[in-house]
Amino acid sequence: MRINLQKLYLILAFLSYVFSTQDLVLDFLKRAESNNGIIQLDGTSIYSILTKPRNYSIVVMFTTNSIEYNCYVCKKLYPSFRLIAKSRHKTHPKSKTLFFGVLEYLENANIFAQLQLTKIPTIIVYPATVGPAALKNSKPLMLNIRDGDISSEWLAQAISQKINEPIHIVQFLNYGKIVFYSFIAFLSLLFFKITHSFIFYIMSRKELWLIFSLACILIFNSGYMLVKIRKSPFNGQDDNSPSYILRSSHAQYGIESHIIVVTYLILMFTVILLTVFTPKIANKRKQTALIILLIIFQFVIFSFLLHIFRMKNRNYPFKLLLL
């Protein structure tokens, strides 16, 4: 009689385990179907995953999307994790062997502490412990995530190696972006149809093209792009006094771009005065005097420009004035 009671107890315990595990799997499957393969986990779910035998594998991403923590890597990694979960759900919609879950730190800080997780995001693979999908090594496996390992391809390969099951990534169409860009294109065409005559009038104005061309010449010749690319300081310090010219031909301060632009602008206006304004002066003496003054002024400005060039190129031997 005692033996029969023991057998009955074992049978009941086994049936209880089977039905409880089956209920959990069905619950996971239902949650995954309603959220494109992602299961939003809570304390109860994690407790069941950690303490009960698993006839399934689950990949859990411990992360946070809280503005308070502003986790850059979390925001960068989550789309890849979501794509893998969605792809798995798309290719195996009724699968009960592999799930993907997310646990939010802000609502489950005590669980993070119990698991001794010191950084986020963390991805842990919990392999199946029983059943056909069980592995010899069923211990939880933590993925080594570095800032560069963010792509969905790398993540899918890393998870596949842990559970010995291939994961195929499906590239989904983003219908929201398609609708948005189609709407923007429609508005652009409508705007162009309404304003095309005015746009053609503006584009045919020589004055605007002249200003645009001169602005581009000044910007590119002043070293503005070099300063932006190298993020050079605006000015330097030389013996506790500000320095405005960096004595090197391979770099420059930000203020040097302003100095060069102003210098070229002055030279440009002197050329315009010589070629456009002075020929219209009727008085020959005034015309001659203005031409001489402008040429002298140009000579001084060119001397200053050449002096800056010599400061940045110490072996350059030529100069105009004694600067």
From TrEMBL:
Q: Which GO terms describe its biological process?
A: protein N-linked glycosylation via asparagine
Localization annotation: Endoplasmic reticulum membrane
Mainly localized where? Answer: endoplasmic reticulum
Q: How does it sit in the membrane?
A: Multi-pass membrane protein
CC terms in the record's Gene Ontology section = oligosaccharyltransferase complex
First and last residue of the signal peptide: 1-20
Q: Where are the transmembrane segments?
A: 178-201, 208-227, 257-277, 289-309
| Keywords recorded for this protein, A-Z | Endoplasmic reticulum, Membrane, Signal, Transmembrane, Transmembrane helix
| InterPro entries on file | OligosaccharylTrfase_OST3/OST6, Thioredoxin-like_sf
Keyword set includes Lipoprotein: no
Task: Give the protein family.
Answer: Belongs to the OST3/OST6 family.
Q: What does this protein do?
A: Subunit of the oligosaccharyl transferase (OST) complex that catalyzes the initial transfer of a defined glycan (Glc(3)Man(9)GlcNAc(2) in eukaryotes) from the lipid carrier dolichol-pyrophosphate to an asparagine residue within an Asn-X-Ser/Thr consensus motif in nascent polypeptide chains, the first step in protein N-glycosylation. N-glycosylation occurs cotranslationally and the complex associates with the Sec61 complex at the channel-forming translocon complex that mediates protein translocation across the endoplasmic reticulum (ER). All subunits are required for a maximal enzyme activity.
Q: What is this protein called?
A: Thioredoxin domain-containing protein
Q: Which organism is it from?
A: Pneumocystis murina (strain B123) (Mouse pneumocystis pneumonia agent)
